Amino acid sequence: MATAAAVVVGCSLLAERSGPMIAAMIATLPISIGPVYVFLALDHDAAFIAQGALGSMSANLANAALCFVYVPLAQRFGTVLCLSAAVLAWFAALLLLRALELPFAVLLVTTVVVYGSLHGLFRRYSGARPSHQPSRPWYLIPMRAGFVATLAAVVTTLSTQVGPAWSGVLAALPVVLTSMIAMLQPRIGGPAMAAVLANSALPLIGFGMAIGSVHLNAVPLGSPLALTLGLAISVGWNLALMRLSRGAR
């Protein structure tokens, strides 16, 4: 729990000090799901991890619904309404995806198509900046650490009871995105926070590919190597996006 909390808090603090694009790159790294999967791999075999990754791919694809609802709402409305609507959209999309039980190939292609489309749709929202440098109330860091530590404890405790697919879903809950909304929108404003999510569309493709890699490689390569490869894919994808963005500018 402490390890997971420390990773997320450290990366979140970096995200707060950067622009929307860099913040999106950091927020879409496996900084929450990664430690949870490490703990799951200590308790379960590679087949469990491979099946769990399919559940995580559905949860990641449901993030598209969260972003689709949040980004336009945040231009006009407050944190409570925007976050509530976004979380409800995430749950609705997740339940639909779990009911459909899409195969791996369909999930992967849908992830690329949906987030690629969102990237084009969100371009006009991606450049907003906060009007001033916000202060940070003392309670935000322990609150964020508590969110992630609780997630790690719940998933590892319930994994045996709920099975691999729902363990993967729980591991991929949008803790980082929702906690950033809850803690940053009141301080930097809705448009600036929406810019972070608008810039996260393409990085979430890499996140989905990283999870897909874990699904494919956990059994033949073993969980440790599969998780390491997934992390490398996610980091490499985001670094490539940053390089392309700088080249375009």
From TrEMBL:
<keyword id="KW-0812">Transmembrane</keyword>
<feature type="transmembrane region" description="Helical">
    <location>
        <begin position="77"/>
        <end position="96"/>
    </location>
</feature>
<feature type="transmembrane region" description="Helical">
    <location>
        <begin position="221"/>
        <end position="241"/>
    </location>
</feature>
<feature type="transmembrane region" description="Helical">
    <location>
        <begin position="165"/>
        <end position="184"/>
    </location>
</feature>
<protein>
    <submittedName>
        <fullName>Uncharacterized protein</fullName>
    </submittedName>
</protein>
<feature type="transmembrane region" description="Helical">
    <location>
        <begin position="196"/>
        <end position="215"/>
    </location>
</feature>
<feature type="transmembrane region" description="Helical">
    <location>
        <begin position="102"/>
        <end position="122"/>
    </location>
</feature>
<feature type="transmembrane region" description="Helical">
    <location>
        <begin position="47"/>
        <end position="70"/>
    </location>
</feature>
<feature type="transmembrane region" description="Helical">
    <location>
        <begin position="138"/>
        <end position="159"/>
    </location>
</feature>
<keyword id="KW-0472">Membrane</keyword>
<keyword id="KW-1133">Transmembrane helix</keyword>
